[in-house]
Write the structure tokens for this entry.
Amino acid sequence: GQNIDQPTEMTATEGAIVQINCTYQTSGFNGLFWYQQHAGEAPTFLSYNVLDGLEEKGRFSSFLSRSKGYSYLLLKELQMKDSASYLCAVKDSNYQLIWGAGTKLIIKP
Amino acid sequence: GAVVSQHPSWVICKSGTSVKIECRSLDFQATTMFWYRQFPKQSLMLMATSNEGSKATYEQGVEKDKFLINHASLTLSTLTVTSAHPEDSSFYICSAKLPGLASGELFFGEGSRLTVL
């Protein structure tokens, strides 16, 4: 079966750095997405990786290793507004999106 | 970025009634839209893929007669929850892809929170 694993919850301190991991087992791979979802709101797009390596976008970076079925989202200089759930999603061989359950990130002052 | 608008944001209805949720792509044409349901503390669950001018494709386990989807134009898809029951209470979210965008990222509507009493 297809599976996306990411930690349920993480806690970090304002101003610090946090890494949210995502491992996947899917039938084929056509890209990996990270979305941010604040409580009660719809997800918003953060990043897209289809090739191995690091994609940097401001305070957020996303890394992909296709051979390891692994990605991480790195958040730097954490702000209170970064408190949200972070969803990892993989596009499989049929271009269907397989969603992880999300990681709830709690930022403490 | 592309804008997808969903309406209503909140709806409370009595058990047995039907509720319609609209999803509009405001600044682009969306031949395909996706409807998701999300229960508290759970991830997104794809319910169906809405195709303009043709029947929607439903995921396994989703009742097509209960969740009616109509995609009558390139900018509007509607989801009607028929004969709603308390177990249908959930957060319903639509999304669309921007044509021609290589990544295929999804643009989401604001979501509609349905509470069935």
Summary: Chain A has no helices and eleven strands. The first strand of chain A starts at residue 3 and ends at 5. Chain A touches chain B through 19 residues (CB under 8 Å). Residues 31 and 50 of chain A are 4 Å apart (CA to CA).
